[in-house]
UniProtKB/TrEMBL annotation, chains A, B, C, D:
Domain Gfo/Idh/MocA-like oxidoreductase N-terminal: 2-129
Gene3D superfamilies: Dihydrodipicolinate Reductase, domain 2 (3.30.360.10), NAD(P)-binding Rossmann-like Domain (3.40.50.720)
Pfam families in the cross-refs: GFO_IDH_MocA, GFO_IDH_MocA_C3
Name of the protein in question: Gfo/Idh/MocA family oxidoreductase
GFO/IDH/MocA-like oxidoreductase domain boundaries: 137-268
InterPro entries the UniProt entry points to: Gfo/Idh/MocA-like_OxRdtase_N, Gfo/Idh/MocA_oxidoreduct, GFO_IDH_MocA-like_dom, NAD(P)-bd_dom_sf
Record organism: Variovorax defluvii
Organism superkingdom: Bacteria
Amino acid sequence: MVGGGRDAFIGAVHRKAIALDGQAELVAGALSSSPEKARESGRALWLADGRNHGDWRALLDDELKRPPEERIDFVSIVTPNHLHLPVAQAFVEAGFHVVCDKPLVHTAAQAQALVAAVARQGTVFAVTYNYTGYPMVREAREIVRSGRLGEIRKVVVEYNQGWLATRLEGEGNKQAEWRSDPARSGAAGAIGDIGSHAENLVATVTGLEIESLCADLGALVPGRPLDDDGSVLLRFQGGARGVLIASQVNTGLENDLRLRVSGTLGTLVWRQERPSELWHLPHDGPRRVLTRGSPWLGDAARRASRLPSGHPEGFIEAFANVYGGVFADIRARLAGRPAEALEADYPRIEEGARGVRFIERVVASSRSDAKWTAW
Amino acid sequence: MVGGGRDAFIGAVHRKAIALDGQAELVAGALSSSPEKARESGRALWLADGRNHGDWRALLDDELKRPPEERIDFVSIVTPNHLHLPVAQAFVEAGFHVVCDKPLVHTAAQAQALVAAVARQGTVFAVTYNYTGYPMVREAREIVRSGRLGEIRKVVVEYNQGWLATRLEGEGNKQAEWRSDPARSGAAGAIGDIGSHAENLVATVTGLEIESLCADLGALVPGRPLDDDGSVLLRFQGGARGVLIASQVNTGLENDLRLRVSGTLGTLVWRQERPSELWHLPHDGPRRVLTRGSPWLGDAARRASRLPSGHPEGFIEAFANVYGGVFADIRARLAGRPAEALEADYPRIEEGARGVRFIERVVASSRSDAKWTAW
Amino acid sequence: MVGGGRDAFIGAVHRKAIALDGQAELVAGALSSSPEKARESGRALWLADGRNHGDWRALLDDELKRPPEERIDFVSIVTPNHLHLPVAQAFVEAGFHVVCDKPLVHTAAQAQALVAAVARQGTVFAVTYNYTGYPMVREAREIVRSGRLGEIRKVVVEYNQGWLATRLEGEGNKQAEWRSDPARSGAAGAIGDIGSHAENLVATVTGLEIESLCADLGALVPGRPLDDDGSVLLRFQGGARGVLIASQVNTGLENDLRLRVSGTLGTLVWRQERPSELWHLPHDGPRRVLTRGSPWLGDAARRASRLPSGHPEGFIEAFANVYGGVFADIRARLAGRPAEALEADYPRIEEGARGVRFIERVVASSRSDAKWTAW
Amino acid sequence: MVGGGRDAFIGAVHRKAIALDGQAELVAGALSSSPEKARESGRALWLADGRNHGDWRALLDDELKRPPEERIDFVSIVTPNHLHLPVAQAFVEAGFHVVCDKPLVHTAAQAQALVAAVARQGTVFAVTYNYTGYPMVREAREIVRSGRLGEIRKVVVEYNQGWLATRLEGEGNKQAEWRSDPARSGAAGAIGDIGSHAENLVATVTGLEIESLCADLGALVPGRPLDDDGSVLLRFQGGARGVLIASQVNTGLENDLRLRVSGTLGTLVWRQERPSELWHLPHDGPRRVLTRGSPWLGDAARRASRLPSGHPEGFIEAFANVYGGVFADIRARLAGRPAEALEADYPRIEEGARGVRFIERVVASSRSDAKWTAW
């Protein structure tokens, strides 16, 4: 693991997601860009001294020196955004499988370079768009893709939080600091941090491709160099319309990601804060509330579930489902066979690259006086 | 009453709202543009023959011939949109108080003429933006206006229905027919029919004024001459941002009007389909669910409530609250005194005119290649 | 109308329910047991002086003196409980149709006498168990009665309020005063006032008959002579089990009547505070949320609905549905024909009598050391 | 770990809960009563051969032979109920810390013997009443215990499921088989399996002690030797009343454990299926919805939470919180200091013994003709 030391948020989530099902174990790390903090964090996690590094290059060098059967099977990159590129590039070039947090990199050009490197190496590269790991998101995907909603007409996705409603970045909050710093976060704030999840959710569930978009980004908290609020009109290939809203200044909202997809035959509604329910509103009968763990769900949802219905699963399980797909893919490769689609069900690097493209296009549109910015 | 005969929808709602509190009685009408249907409808409502007219001009003439104490106190205009103007103009010019359905008229110029006429006559003129009659909308208005949300930053309003997801207008549905006919409905479809409610809700609760907007209207059901779906980015004077979505093709949605207003100190969330709840998310404490009928609500909400909390009130009560404000205003005038603000709490003709302006600006923006269309 | 003057609660609800659909009009009354308050209340409701009486006997005498075509079509009795019997008896004996609030009378013996009187006269006699007027309760009844839940196994009904969590009766609250006074309220407090609604709801929806019961009533607020909280175990004929809970001391609860009926093929869940939704949980598929106004509902629910789905109807509409059934029955009789079941869909005097029996049995059980008290 | 092999349900939950936070590791086991299945299950979990036993006695013997620093720190007993006693007794007598599933044992006498053994050994003994591990249950406990609800008057707890609505035990379902077999499950079915959770939830949150109870247990699915449905009236010391309902035949219900506690100053409502919300209804202000992860929660709830609010945690996290308390207690003992109350926050053997007593008293009451059975 690279990144994820003390004061980090998402690294601990990755570790719990990895540990949950007992399929993998953390054995080596460079857990912070501060060597001292890195080692201290590693010790707290019982890393062996010889595999607890102060720098990610040292980790990589050490791994390469080890015989293949002792090496890590994959690396998780959970640093702030600006480090994704150099770390990922180095590990991919060295032939390691990679799990990388989102947004993948800062620019579409960087993303393309990384996609090319992965293609050359033929390695596994997952991007942790964790929300699509929820069973009921996979059920939604199956319902839409199988045509049960008919032709999609309208998609509304919102991802709203309130935690940046004040200038936390000026009060010593590490999470707020790097997210509001263009050098570390990239060209976008909220639209990169959470808008990219919203984009991925829409693409995963519907398969629709954005044709053009019209964005209005703003820094509603005075003095913030990056957007903390954005609204985007979407036009999809084939004629569907959409709206994407992402904001981190909605005081009192927690992690309110929600999706509505309307087609000629019905509508689906899902909310991340109640992830086990998927509402399906068919045009010709009563509303249906599909619940995780039910026997009548599709394969993808059933595979992504651990407990009987009514026993709440949450964020970590969804995250673990992304890892589960990665593990299955790695195992299949070790066994010399291609993984099945439902087995290796995780977001690929191409999705990460599309997400970076999305951020670029949104930022371009927001700066433009033209109504529509083509994809 | 003008309009509201057999096959009409909103006329019956007006009548129930008028009857509910026993403050007024329907005594005369011209209930349809078809004389025969008008009279038949009037008879079904026990109108006396002499006051059951086949044409609204006959109704007006008859009323003017009666001695003042026998005349109607006000007229309700509940026809399709294109008739609002001539009927309203005639009754206003004749000195009658008027309650008129929305959208007020087809063009901003017509609206200004009507506003001027009302100003000349000094009569009561209400526009039935009925959703702002809900007690918890009035509570939301009081919370925002009193500063308890701080400075408003973001407003999201959605009004989604599904009933026009197929071409009902081609299957003999009268409601669908006139709404999708530009001659009767005006320049807009969904954005006029329900988007105007959404605009009024935002303005009522927040008092914010739109500075510019960027709209994408579409007819997502093929062959429809007017929009059935629209999404609008909003910029308000003072810097707040917003999104307004109105659609009648969200299969399976019923009458899903919902509002979220976020300020520096908190967020309010309200849904028309659960009208008795208002969620208040303060920045410094747990979520609060305010319920209709509670003693800790403000004056406006308490006055607008009839039953103890937990005894559901609904759409008709909200509608009746608009009428209640009109009745109070008329009574105050009869008593020769000005009505208090909370007593005569109903949407005025100026709001109706602003709504028409909104529709015009949205349609103009939707046809424009420029990102922002000024108000 | 007898009762329902100033300071009363339910009288005004009856009047709004009567007025809502324009099918009947209040023309005469004796609105309070205080002659002065009665007349003052009548004037406020625009009763003609000659029909605004200070005493219910005067009202009855006056009506009998009028020619039949001028007489009231029916009388609504909305007094405190202890007056139901004398007033109802007198009007029934005089041949009037009656709508009477619940609980019907104080004792089962009184109830039987009244049932017999109504049978002799052949008049309409409705008891305003208003909650069964909700469309989705009627849908629940249809689902259960048609066998779609299979054999019923378990029924849980709760009716909880919080308004009597303090000794309001000692603070001048008229509603609390008579309800906590055995002379006016009868042998039971909460179990009579709201438990009787719960019993009626169960019987209406399921048709099950109670075989034996085991009750624990308590006055949880010190110094109260009647129960303010009760819990009852139920055994139904045929083997189903049940629990009925009624409490008026659940601080913060409003009017929380809810029903769950479980059968071999599915479960139904309904809550009065969200009356437009009926949850149906079939054993072999996803949960279904049936909503008022949907085309796929049964006849009884569709007839009981006024507005399209998503336009909230509430307590008054449900109340008005009871009156609508009474009006239909009276009209059918005037037309010399029997009313159809779905047309004259209202709670009869036999249900009122059963409710009184229920209260008696619960009180007896609560006082008994034996576990089961037979019906 | 003893039990929890292939086909088991709760064993895998224990393992995920143990793994989640990286504080402990499964190193030895006797995972089934079938030696072959035990070893096969252990291999699937990467147990070393020398610690993968076919029988729990072999596991115990082997551990005792190892030097203390190599021994397991504690054993988790996750077998069917009838094995809890012999396994627990043996490990306690040998000086091991124990985590045991509920219900603890079959009889109150057995429970007392085990309590005495633990007292003699001074070891840690936890009973996995996992639902009280939810942060918002701990918040509820803090609210009640701190007096913020005033004096408790009424408690209603329901735990309803539907999975045993048919005779699954006759169709090869292992979970259903042992639960409906008195030899393995004990004297009670649903009331033992899930009613005991409900009892523990009430006791944990309120601290109230049952004075007497009145139960009606039934086997509503024909042919079942143990109850699958039960309802119990409760009287608590000090005067509060309660109702406990537990059923496994509520078709379509999933894992619907819910609690309502009403006091003189307010009411709390919690539902296991939405575990992150705790509704608090104070008598003097609007409803409050407390959410997991909020800074204004009490210490116990904040310690029991891993992720920011709005990032759903679930069943496994609650389970892991029980284990977290056990780990803290063991660590404190290793460090030679007493653990703080909030640190070692887990259900003790005394709670397990009380739960067994509860089951006995409920079964006795259900068989009795007397209304009240004393505790």
